[in-house]
Every structure is written in C-alpha cells, then in structure tokens.
Amino acid sequence: MPPTSPFGRTVCAMVTPFTPDGALDLDGAQRLADHLVCEGGCDGLVLSGTTGESPTTSDAEKSALVAAVVEAVGDRARITAGVGSASTAHTVELARAAEKAGAHGLLVVTPYYSRPPQEDVAEHFRTVADATGLPVMLYDIPGRTGTRVEPDTMLRVAEHPRVAGVKDCAYDLLGSAKVIAATGLAYYSGSEELNLPLRAVGGVGYVSTVANVAGPAVAAVLDAYDRGANEEAARLHQRTLPLVELMMAAGLPGTVTAKALLGALGLPGGPVRAPLRPASAERTRALLAARAELGL
C-alpha cells in the first residue's frame, strides 16, 4: 500500500484561471477544480504555487481562490495553499489567511532572493509552521529560489509536529532518499520525470503541472506501481515523457504550456499574466499532438 499523507497522493499544481481581460476567474477555478478531481485522477490540489502564478496574484486573490476551490470540491480532495514569499512575516500572514479561507494544508517555499543560511531557512519554516494549525509541505526548489534546503536541514525541521511533507524539486535522489528513510516526511515529486523514481525510494506521490491536462495518464503510473506492476509502471511513465518534455523542458514555463492546452481543450485557464506570454499556435498544436499520443 502507498504511504499516507494529509496532502493527498496524486496532486495537481493547478493553474489559476483568469478571464480574457486578466481578472481572477473564480467560476472557472471551481469548474477546473471539479474537473481535475472528478475526471483528472487528482485527490489533491495545490493552489497559488509556481504553476498557479503566485508572484502575480494579490493576497486577496489568493484567499478568494482557496475559498472558491474548497467550496467546489468539498471533502473530495485535499486543498493545499501556496503561501511562500521572500518575507517570513508576509508568509505568516498568507498562511493565516489560507487557514481562514478553508485550506487543508500549506505549501511553503524557501525564502528566495536573499539566500538565507540554512539555520535561517529552518527558522523560517518553523515560524510559519507555528503560525497555524495546518500541516506544512516544504517546497525545495533551489533552481528558482537560489537556496537548497539541505538534507540535514530537512532532518531538523522534520522534528516540528506540523511539518508533514516536502515538494521535492532538488534533483537529488540520494539526499531525498536519506531524509525519507530517517523521517516521517511525505515526499512528493515536483519534477515530472522523477514521479516514478521518487515513489520507488519511498515518496508518497507527486505535485504535478502536467496533471492539469493529463491527470489520468500521470496517475496511472503510480497506480500500476502501487499494485506491484513495476514493468507496467515503467512503460506508462516512459509513455508520458514526450508530453512532459514538451510542457516542462522545451523553453516555456509549465504554466504557459498548461494554459495553452487547457484553452485548446475548452477547459478554464485563460491567459497568463505578464511577464509570461502565451504559447504560439505552433507550440499549442505540438502540445495537443503529444497529449493525443497518450490516448486522452
């Protein structure tokens, strides 16, 4: 049986839908969330993360988004709110607002730009975890923040009773496996190509951008692995890689490619906010073709 976690297992890093004029589309967010849970194979949603364009949404928009999505999906999925920022005080404010709006958990990214030393990173996480009664998923993505959460730091922070998980974008399977072995932290792959490898070394699941548009195909990989069909899991994982590469590693951010596909599929998403720009028609056609190869 797969490990359990308060954040879910097959988790989508949901885009934030906007109207054609760029305003927050709460109705669209509710419809997309319902689709991802009912038809997309997702038992958890992360809001206002990287894919959710959190740098360009206001605090009020973040709270409204949480409230709307919680209302839409109820108890059918775990809703985790991204509350990270470069400021500890601001992160605490966002965490308390997310709790008030009904979130089930918090995603807290390493403070970025200031490049704090490791003990400062640990204290930041502890301070945020102390601020609410919600479980916390740490978000380790040094490629964006400039600061790694070192394995020794993870081990120290894991002692906090509300630090429950990690979204892992560190590309260090050895370090992740060591922390998994030594703690009760629920590890989630935040790098699509590592969804299966991380699960194989004790991870719980994934927080996936690709799940916005191909949730059943992504979930099928873990489903096969968890029933002991390892060769099938590997085959299904390999089958997703062309779409994964085109969405996540071909020069455009995952937000841009996910929204291009959602729009082409008639699902809520809308435009991206500047400084991001939309995908070209040519790229959108290529994305649709790669998705079609999955039989979706």
Automatic annotation (TrEMBL):
Keyword Lyase applies: yes
UniProt keyword annotations, A-Z: Amino-acid biosynthesis, Cytoplasm, Diaminopimelate biosynthesis, Lyase, Lysine biosynthesis, Schiff base
InterPro entries from the UniProt entry: Aldolase_TIM (IPR013785), DapA (IPR005263), DapA-like (IPR002220), Schiff_base-form_aldolases_AS (IPR020625), Schiff_base-form_aldolases_CS (IPR020624)
Annotated pyruvate binding sites: T51, V207
Biological process terms in GO annotation: diaminopimelate biosynthetic process; lysine biosynthetic process via diaminopimelate
Enzyme class, first EC level, given as a word: lyase
Annotated site location: Part of a proton relay during catalysis: T50, Y113
GO-annotated cellular components: cytosol
Keyword Cell inner membrane: no
Pathway: Amino-acid biosynthesis; L-lysine biosynthesis via DAP pathway; (S)-tetrahydrodipicolinate from L-aspartate: step 3/4
Family named by the database record: Belongs to the DapA family.
Record's subunit section: Homotetramer; dimer of dimers.
Descriptive protein name: 4-hydroxy-tetrahydrodipicolinate synthase
Gene designation: dapA
